[in-house]
Hints:
Layout: H1 2-9, H2 16-46, H3 51-79, H4 81-100, H5 105-133, H6 138-159, H7 161-167, H8 170-192, H9 217-229, H10 231-246, H11 251-272, H12 281-302, H13 308-340, H14 346-353, H15 355-373, H16 375-409, H17 418-421
Helix pairs in contact: 2-6, 2-8, 3-4, 3-5, 3-14, 3-15, 4-5, 4-8, 5-14, 6-11, 6-13, 7-8, 9-15, 9-16, 10-11, 10-13, 10-15, 11-13, 12-13, 12-16, 15-16
Amino acid sequence: MGRIxxxxxxxxPSSRAGRTLAAVAVxxxxxxxxxxxxxxxxxxxxxxxxxxxxxxxxxxxxxVGLATTVPLGLIGDRIxxxxxxxxxxxxxxxxxxxxxxxxxxxGFVVAAVGLTIAVRSATxxxxxxxxxxxxxxxxxxxxxxxxxxxxxxxxxxxxxxxPIFAADTLWAYRSILLxxxxxxxxxxxxxxxxxxxxxxxxxxxxxxxxxTGLWDWRLLLVALLNGVFSLHTVILAVGVPLWALAVDAPLxxxxxxxVLNTVLAVLLQVATARGSxxxxxGERALIRSAYALILCCVLFAAAPLGGGYVVVVAxxxxxxxxxxxxxxxxxxxxxxxxxxxxxxxxxxxxxxxxLGPAVTDIAxxxxxxxxxxxxxxxxxxxxVLLAGMGLTIRVIVRTAERQAAARDETPSPDGDxxxxxxxxxxxxxxxxxxxxxxxxxxxxxxxxxGPSLSR
Length: 455
């Protein structure tokens, strides 16, 4: 019982800031789950768009969102990450309302582009917010907790679509988007109750006046790794359903696989974030993610080699491995992102770091459809790709770490921004005093999965 209580305590934030972050995750994810489950039906049945038109609009939105991520990160560093996240959440709500009342393809594309711009930028902005609010390893733990909460919220939101689909009316479908808009405004209200500690605000004179993250080739290589190993999201959303159909798996198995992924993510995400304060955590977590994703591909490749039972066992075992890769990638990427981003340019560097997954969201579906088309050899080829990238993890990560350490030891010509952002080696801890209560220097916002139109 003692171990169970200790495990459950990890899911109850000890500070007011942590509880607020959790509340934002709940509100945000329920609305997002509703949107993810029902928006496509609204686009086709409510607006009357063709599937081809929806796909083209979402592809355009994804490209524009990718192009605007870093510029908005620069703005976030200048106006403050809390204010930026509040603006992005408000903009998301407005774009959802616009989508709810779109009547043709043009209106859909305009609103979709506007929404995706905010969605892409909200992820790094949210990570910057957590970095400003929490200290050291608590940052990764908080991200893990919020992600676990979100998985529950997504499921609850998806359940809310049942009566909406039963009604099958225009206003029933519109309520999906309007409800999601209301949840983002609720997140803004929660954000407004929090404040950033003076020690985490970087004065204008200490901020870079020009972008540097895009020219940091070491960071770009880490972003590439982040993108490759975020393929787990596309494998789950695209590869698993298509492969289940290709190998004639029973249809009920697809639902079971998704439920299995959700349950494991809720139960184990916080556990995979333990030890994030130890040297080399991010590197080790990415290597474990590579092993798990390679195993997943091999198991999926083995599915057609036997009868019905072999298919079921191979897909279930492959989903367990896929979830392991997902959880280790998340924990490792969070730790690396927080550690490699300079405090004065955190929003910008986190935006660059998240370019990898953004590219994966756009190109990944094409890759996975090709993998499924080539059947088992396709999965084995993907395993080889992941193995090749896995061999580069140690070199790329350590090169980036050395560069970050050298950068942090070099005083800025405009003044050392670290004196403002990390006054005692960690955000939120005053110089020469006890650790500050993270409840006071708090800001908040959702991360990991947003209501991305590309999902």
